[in-house]
Every structure is written in structure tokens, then in C-alpha cells.
Amino acid sequence: MKVATVLSLGIFLGVCGGVSLPKYIKLCRGSDPDFDKCGLRNGKEAIKHLVAGDKALRLVPLSPLKLPFIQLENRADFQLNLTDVQILGLDKAELIDFHADLDQHNIRTIVHLAEITVNGDLHADGRVLILPIKGDGPGSIKAYGGNYTFDFHYDLVRKDGREFAKIGKHDFSFSVKKATFDVEKTFGDSIIGKETNKFLNENWSEVIKDFEKVIGYTIGAICKNIASSVFETVPYDEFILP
User: Measured in whole angstroms, how far is the alpha carbon of residue 35 from the centre of its chain?
Assistant: First the structure.
């Protein structure tokens, strides 16, 4: 699946080196046998501030998160994309699990979102599952009871005489208890809109699975940018106590 997602316009302002660690990010000792518990406890508090934005880290507020464009499908026989996208609900993000392997430079976080909404102008020309769809207009997707897992590896790079963590290989996966669609006004015909809406909501699990890769790519890129705004801005030795 070919994916093209524009993230650089309107999400992050960029990163620069040498910024001091924000006071709301509390430190843990690398030698602590309960390092993961410490990271989870401190991360629960830090995430509230990060999603609210931080000028020092040059991270803009993430609720609503605005994206100019998301390409869901781009094939000769199927075009599906969203423009003028707004993602609502990230301000309610709750960190529920944290694991770090400091020797191997691997970190896993799991965030819970009780509800998240994606609004935008939908362009569709092709087929979702067995349903042919074609139209342009406003659309909305809501996901409920979601757990979102972000795994990433980092390398230590030297910059201006200090070491910084640089995010490398990363992976994103998720599960939701339910998803609902509102596309009745997308197709310009109330009957087609209602029938399409009914089909998508009755088959929400399969529809979400059909776009699982691109959803993972898009949100994974967002998570990477958030992590990079912190790790590539604050020296590594300010994160981990001896």
C-alpha cells in the first residue's frame, strides 16, 4: 500500500539542540530495578504537558491536531484521501504502559484514548471491501476504547559536544473496541449516503483492518515527531540519572 502523508505543515516547528529538560519531565535512575514503573509514573504526568504543546521544545498543541492531507489509498482503481483534517481527543491521552531497554536502546509505550475523532473533507473513488464508493464531501470517523502502542529504537549521536538520542526504526500498532463513521453528506445523495454509512458502521472492524497499515504509518509518524521533539532537543544525559 502506497502511503503519502503530509505532517510537516502545521504540526511541528522543528527541533534544535541544547534545550534544558522541562521541569514537568521527572527523571529516573538507569540502575533502578523498577525503572519501568518510574518511567510510567513520570510519563503519565509528562504526556499531559506534551500534548498541550511546549514552546521550548517547539512542539505545538496537539488538540486539535491539524493535517492538510492524508492519503489512504492511491491506486489506479482506487483513490481515497482526506484534506483539511482535524484530529480531536489527543489531549485526553493516558499513558498506560512503559518499557525501556536502555542497553539495547529500545522503548515501548502504550497510550489509551477513550475516544478520538478524525474530521475532514473526504474524496473517494473506488471500493471499500465489496462496496463501490465515489464522492466528495465532509466525513468523520470516531474510534472508542483504543490502545495505541509505539515501539522505537534510538541511537546516540554527538552534537555540539553532547550526546542526543535520535529515533530510528519504529513501529506503531493499535486496537479499538469500536469505530463509527459519518459519511452521509459525502456523496451528494441522501439515499447513497445513508446506505454507505450503514454498511461502513455494520462492518467497522473489517474497514479499520483494511486501512490498518496507513493508520499505523500516519499515527506512528506523529508519535515519532513527538518523541524526536524531546529526545533530539534535550541532551541524553539529562534524561537518565546515574
Answer: 25
Q: Residue 206 — φ and ψ, nearest 5°?
A: -70, -35
Following CA atoms 160, 165, 167, 171 in sequence, which dihedral angle do they give, to the nearest 10 degrees?
180
Q: What is the pTM (predicted TM-score) of this model? A: 0.85
**Torsion sign, CA atoms 26, 164, 150, 124:** positive
Radius of gyration of the chain (CA): 20
Tens-binned pLDDT, residue by residue, of the chain (242 aa): 333 333 333 344 344 455 777 888 888 888 899 999 999 999 999 998 888 888 888 788 888 888 898 877 777 777 888 999 999 998 999 999 999 999 999 999 999 999 999 999 998 888 877 777 888 999 999 999 999 999 999 999 998 889 999 999 999 999 999 999 998 888 777 888 888 899 889 999 998 888 787 777 777 888 888 888 888 888 888 888 77
CA–CA gap between residue 31 and residue 33 (Å, rounded): 6
C-alpha cell at 7: 505532517
Q: Are 13 and 58 in contact (CB under 8 A)?
A: yes
